[in-house]
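ASSEMBLY PREDICTION REQUEST
Request ID: AP-0331
Submitted by: J.K., bench scientist
Number of chains: three
Total residues: 683
Priority: normal
Notes: Please return the full assembly, not individual chains.
Input sequences:
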Amino acid sequence: MVLQKRLDYGFHGYQVPAIPRASRSARRRGSLRINVNDNQMCDFELLATVADKLLQEGKSSAPSNASAGKDPSATVKDSVKQEQHDEENLLKVEPSDQVSCEESVFVSEIFSQGHNQNYTLKKFLHAQNDDGLGFSSEIATSEHSEKVGCAVKLTICKHKNLFGNFPSKVEGGSPNYGESCEDIVEDKIDRKLEAEPRKIESLMNGTVADKCSSEDPMELDRKSLAFVSSDSSVEVPLSRDRIPFGSFPGHQDDVKVVSRDDDENSSGCTQPSTIIKAFRTRPRIGDRIIRKFLEPRYWKGAPKLKDDEEMKAVYRNRKICYTRQRSQRNLSCKRRKLFNRSSVLTSDGISSEGISSSPEKGINGDATGSGVKMHGASGASSSVSGQQASFQSRDSDGRQALDGVMVPELFIEIPETATVGSLKRAVMEAVTAILGGGLHVGVLIQGKKIRDDNKTLLQTGISHDDRMDTLGFMLEPNPAQAPPPPCLENSSFLLPSDIPQPLTRYPATPTLNPVTSDASPDPPESNLGNCVESDHDSVLFPTDISTVKTTLDSRALVAIPSMSVEALAVVPIHRKSSRSELVQRRMRRPFSVTEVEALVQAVEKLGTGRWRDVKLRAFDNAKHRTYVDLKDKWKTLVHTARISPLQRRGEPVPQELLDRVLSAHAYWSQQQVKQQSENWLLL
DNA sequence: ATTAGGG
DNA sequence: CCCTAAT
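STATUS: Completed
Returned structure:
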């Protein structure tokens, strides 16, 4: 069985903890290959890079050696395993790693359309390229709030041939992928294209026009339906035909825009390439539902949008959205450029593009309902029923930014005999990898939380097909880490069919294997270890939300667009030991006056710049005080000494000590200067 | 491993 | 406190 759940996090206003330390740690550990500056659009770019690379490879038709790309910053791994007669590829991408400190969230969504295989990211992208697959990534971040949406696919291993019953869609031109599909796809596409114009026109008449207005309608080029950015190396045809899946009549379009930043020079942004986004469209039903959410009442305002530099994008049907940003100029600039250059077409015709000039308007305007956006506002906690809330708008003034984000889809395979706890852990791990921790995962079935982690999925009925629909996951802020108000969403799932799939493990994530996780000795980390939902959530989320209707709605919204069952495994690489992931920020231990005294004394003697010695001399037995801590403390002491006593916080430090701090600081600073001048002279 | 600074 | 870059 395959469950696809989308976890939306933060749309309700929950603020994502700044930078998941886990990610950082991972990075440090080296699991992260990408090196990005805070000013860069890490996630976005990374994803873009990966996608781009993949696309390119696809063109060149290199099947298995995917990653080698030119961009050292991105790493993609493929592991291939033979399954039945199909090849299954799992791709790992380490999204979270890319998150820079500043950007805490990234979004990306990857979907694949039906094929009976797990796509590798690469395949995925290819497929999407040609057809229904979509890959999108966007990030919305603000210094204060971020939202993340995450799509999770859960597979409970039971049968084989998971994908058997999906209508298959196919990717078209990927070399590796079945070629047989191409014809079909193309055919569909063609038909779609033909139909497109009308849609587009109609859309244009609608409010959508506004959105597009800022940019030229070039995107409307019906013939090509593919949008290519200036540099872009990729063209993505939009496919209008989506194979209906389940109750949703499909039709989604995928849009992908890829652009390369060649112009880094101008903005200073140096990313090699970026993908703007690709989406897969969603069912119309979904649109309607979504529209509903677009209504103001569903929005939460985000207090803080700083600037609109962000781009916003709207997809017509889709609701994806996103964007906003932090005020980083660099980032903004870069993005802006990106967006300016590219626009997105959505299947139904319209596309939107992010435009710097009038982004907000565009987004909002979606009277057509086509665009979606949300922005991360905060606040409203659970308000909207949950998941859907994912779309919010930020300002009442009508401008909204989309903060929505797509997160990489996670594919989780778990045996029926696994316990709920392991399920939670598995999801948590996956999510944590992306979000960086700070969240708890809750499991809901038919609206009820399953608190007993020891029950097996079988016992809880999760594995029952009919229950799959009601399975939901909630992400809640980890009380320990995430102080902000709770908000979460549950997700509803969406895949109708159960597809048997062989049990496989993530190749890349050793620790993740749910099955084994229970046995693993890892101490329950504060984060993952106990994925227990907090009660407040319950309150926030009435169980009834799981009602059928809700389910549908949520599906529509959340639905992972692709019906594809393919399992795309996108796994952050860095999850090494869950333990490490969970690493938490060191406890705060304010320096006592005594310690300050010792520090001052040591510094007076040794000077600044010899923290190692200071540590040895005055804090040798305080193992929790590292030389870095001492250095930082000195820094703060100096600052404290300079500010007005009224502005000081915490345990007051005797003025006498502060005076000594200042004098010592002045003295040693002078010494330092002297040293330097001497060196100068010597040279 | 340390140091220096920015966040 | 964290994180990085540079030593």
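REVIEWER COMMENTS: The longest helix of chain A spans residues 655-682.
SIGN-OFF: pending second reviewer
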